[in-house]
Amino acid sequence: MITTAKRLDTVEEYYFSSKLREVRQLQSEGKSIINMGIGSPDLSPSKAVIEAVAAAILDENGHGYQSYQGLPELRKGMADFYQNQFGVELNPNNEILPLMGSKEGIMHISLAFLNEGDHVLIPNPGYPTYTSVTNLVGAVPIYYDLKEANAWEPDFEALEKLDLKKVKIMWLGYPHMPTGARGSLALFEKLVAFAKKHNILLVNDNPYSFVLNDNPMSLLQVEGAKEVALELNSLSKTFNMAGWRVGMVLGNPEIIDAVLKVKSNMDSGMFYGIQKGAVAALNCDKSWFEDQNKIYRRRRELTEKLAEKLGCEVYKEGVGLFVWAKLPEGIESSEKFIDEILYEKHIFITPGTIFGSNGEGYIRFSLCVKEEKVQEAIDRF
């Protein structure tokens, strides 16, 4: 009997991996499931992206191993994007590292900076991967509360009361997933000051800035942020390229170089054609975001109607790819609530509990569902 590594005892299969098997089983039984759980954009990349990839496939030099640091023109495209959208100046030669999706960056950063027993500050609620990766590398997750009463932002008085001596990394993500809280530059300034005071590596996970958000921000806009901070970003949500796996990590050269040491031992470079498509995406003009948001705005309006039909209270201030909603009084379990809807109405909604204990009493709807399907979901009630 070959035994698994002990580290596997610290994690479970990703919620959506197991739950979608359940959904597929219902579909195989002939049930028409409306999936409002997954944040995988159903819209297409721009025509320019598709054309760039098509041309790259015919390039005889495009099928070999690629640079671990990506094409120079891709890094420049990422630098120009940050300059144009956030006013953040980055050196494309040593302050930007393209990733195969920002999710892999969470693992690379953790491997580069965490020793066994180090502590990691993780938002509750927050992206589950922060916890699973922390556990896999043998570090210790320390949760900090985000609550609606505080606009889903950290309580700095509570943070200062924690034992921070062993804390090495603090994860955050604004616009926040799953709630859609926007954050602010004032909040980022406080976080940078906190990280400097306690010698913590601050990492902002920032893939939702351009979805239904009239004020995109970057942590790196804060003066001195590069001294203690990294930012992760992705083309998945912004440019409808989730399956392409294109992301980036940005920060000062010393920190980026440490991440590169890990990454260069994990893969052999991103496919040339995908990189060329990513360059084209990053060159999209303002009309791209406006057109996408017209679609998402109509979907959000309908999804809010669905949530309200369920007796839920929608978090109206939220931005990004999801609608976060509070369950009616008296509902004790968000997981039981969504299961009843899945089996009775054949609609899959995400329970807030998968994002942490502070997600109990909430559910999350994805906007990656066509309007007619959202209307159908409403009609089922």
Automatic annotation (TrEMBL):
Gene3D superfamilies: Aspartate Aminotransferase, domain 1, Type I PLP-dependent aspartate aminotransferase-like (Major domain). Residues 32-381 form the Aminotransferase class I/classII large domain. It is an enzyme of class 2 (transferase). SUPFAM superfamilies: PLP-dependent transferases (SSF53383). One of its GO terms (molecular function) is transaminase activity. Belongs to the class-I pyridoxal-phosphate-dependent aminotransferase family. This is Aminotransferase.
